[in-house]
Amino acid sequence: MIVGKLKPLNEIAASIAGYKNILIAGCGSCVTVCLSGGDRETMALARELSNPGLRGDAPPSIRAATFLRQCERDLVKDYLQVPAETDAILSLACGAGVQTLSSVFEKLPIIPALNTSFLGALDEPGVWREKCLGCGDCVLASTAGICPIARCAKRLLNGPCGGSSKGKCEIGGDVDCAWQLIVDRLKVLDRLKDYEKLQAVKDWSQDRGGGPRSSHRVANAPFE
Amino acid sequence: MSYFRVNEQCNGCLACVQNCPASALDYVDDGNKRKLLHNITLCARCGNCWRICPQKAVQFQSLLKGPWEEVATMELVRCVICGEPLYTVNFSADLAAKIDRSLEPLCPSHRQAHPFAIWKKISSHLIPEKETQR
Known about the structure:
Chain A is 24% helix and 19% strand. Chain A has helices spanning 9-15, 30-33, 39-49, 73-79, 95-104, 148-151, 178-188, and strands spanning 2-6, 21-27, 61-67, 88-91, 110-112, 114-124, 127-132. In chain A, helix 5 links the parallel strand 4 (88-91) and strand 5. The longest helix of chain A is centred in the N-terminal third of the chain and has 11 residues, at 39-49. The two termini of chain A are 33 Å apart. In chain B, the strands form two sheets. Chain B has a two-stranded antiparallel sheet with strand order 1-2. Chain B has a two-stranded antiparallel sheet with strand order 3-4. At the A-B interface, helix 4 of A face helix 2 and helix 3 of B.
């Protein structure tokens, strides 16, 4: 899922300075599950921003609502109710959601309250880790289901490097060496000979190198 | 009552069933009736049915804002002084078993602030004899 982290409160407060009627819009999908932009966080942020001492002037009038998914233009357009007096929307969605709101509500400033962080998975309660970079050319079939693009600091396709020590990456912290994980899992799968195969040159044109990407499902157009 | 609702424009064309990516919509032709079926546990609420319906019959609002459903009903323990709800009888019993003593049915403010006489009256059965004699 897309994992986001709430921006520092002071940064959020500064970004809404001058606005009098703010709609705080939570998103009911990824960021709800990763506990950063769902209904609870939306209500908590509304309480914080209503604190008279936060901005030095009168706190804005705040309404809060959580919408199922902010990243679907037609759904947002038809179903997200924005009070008429609203002069800014503070969105707790990922960057895709923020931009969708921007395209639907052209005359309203849409301000992000989250930093969109990564595509990750829940490893243990409360801990999400990056697992995918969305490179557009998945190599997991040949790396025992562990992604060296997202999980190796150097994105090595033929690793590990000399910075791998006792299963950990030299960048520090508690970051596992992705290639150690790959070798360990190849052993479990009894496919260690796959490790000897040199990886072909990866098609990076499917990554960001090819510019902004899109996906079209022609058969999914509404009937007319 | 289903969370998936259609208005009178629905003509049973099955576009929604055929295009549901989560296989959450189905139908049965029963005698001379066609019945549209929905399974909320499969539904991803992706809105594809709403988007694709040629009749504009899908009422997606009912999948965005639904009623609360009662899941369970349990006996409640309230503060014996002010009546504030505290916890359930079952929770009290489970916790009492874990800490090996029964709980005083008092809210936080009355546990700290009520007159000693009331506290003594309420909890006399909890206090060991030696302490009450002091």
